[in-house]
């Protein structure tokens, strides 16, 4: 299981994404960014995607 915390990339946010693959996590983050942070798809830069990817960690639960 993989896990990502929105807080780890600088947002004051309690969102946590969990999934089996990096793609699962990125899809959840994209939906979250749009819904909860009001971001448009073009606001999610490659730099932010790279930052998210580098903060995806293995989780025991």
Taken from the alpha-carbon principal axes, the silhouette is globular
Helix content: 40-55%
The strand count comes to 3
- Biggest beta sheet summary: 3 strands, antiparallel
Proportion of beta-strand residues: 15-25%
Low-pLDDT windows of residues: none
SSE class: alpha+beta
Radius of gyration: 11 Å
How many domains? 1
Number of helices: 2
**How are the strands of the biggest sheet laid out side by side?**
2-1-3
Task: Determine the N-to-C terminus distance.
Answer: 7 Å
Which sequence of SSEs, written as H and E, runs from N to C? EEHHE
Q: Average pLDDT across residues?
A: 94
Please provide a written account of the structure.
- This protein has 61 residues and is α+β, with helices and mostly antiparallel strands.
- It has one domain.
- The chain is 41% helix and 16% strand.
- The protein has helices spanning 22-37, 46-54, and strands at 2-5, 16-19, 57-58.
Task: Break the fold down into its secondary structure elements and pairings.
Elements: E1 2-5, E2 16-19, H1 22-37, H2 46-54, E3 57-58
Antiparallel strand pairs: 1-2, 1-3
Any descriptors?
single chain; about 60 residues; alpha+beta; about 15% strand; globular
Summarize the structure.
The protein has 61 residues and is α+β, with helices and mostly antiparallel strands.
